[in-house]
Design a protein that fits this description.
mainly beta; 4-stranded antiparallel sheet; semaphorin receptor binding; Semap_dom; Semap_dom_sf; Semaphorin-2A-like
Length: 140
């Protein structure tokens, strides 16, 4: 992705669609936006659509693992944010559009043998009745 001729890294951001008279967020729209922090997202490739479930929004993707220091590895991830995330507050470095409840975890799919073989690249997801099914592959 490029913005004004400069390469950028996508990140998750939000915009408030509606708030009540006491400024409580009634609904939000979660979108992708530019943010340059490899510890948040590092060249993510999102799969499927975000899933809204029990007051949280889940994103499935693969990215270059910033915690892997010996070369380059791609890990599959799930990230979650709260639907009612209100963003930064006054007197903080965070803006109201920043997500403050962002958490991500590695998804691992491997063979259960003595020498496991890892399928590190999530390719697609399917969500039905509160269960998420994922398709994983090896690096081509």
């Amino acid at each position: 992705m490029e913005v004004a001729g400069k390469p950028t890294r996508p990140a998750i951001s939000k915009s408030v669609l509606q708030s009540d008279s006491s400024q409580n967020v009634m609904s939000i729209s979660v979108t992708l936006m530019s943010k340059d922090d490899v510890n948040v997202l590092n060249g993510p490739q999102f799969v499927g659509d975000p899933i809204s479930y029990n007051g949280r929004v889940y994103f499935f993707y693969r990215e270059v693992a910033s915690e892997f220091i010996e070369g380059k590895a791609v890990y599959s991830r799930v990230a979650v944010i709260c639907e009612n995330d209100k963003g930064g507050r006054e007197f903080t470095a965070l803006k109201p559009t920043d997500i403050v409840t962002f958490v991500k975890a590695r998804l691992e799919c491997s063979t259960g043998t003595t020498f496991p073989y890892f399928y590190n690249e999530i390719r697609d997801i399917y969500h039905s009745n509160g269960v998420v099914f994922a398709v994983f592959a090896t690096r081509p």
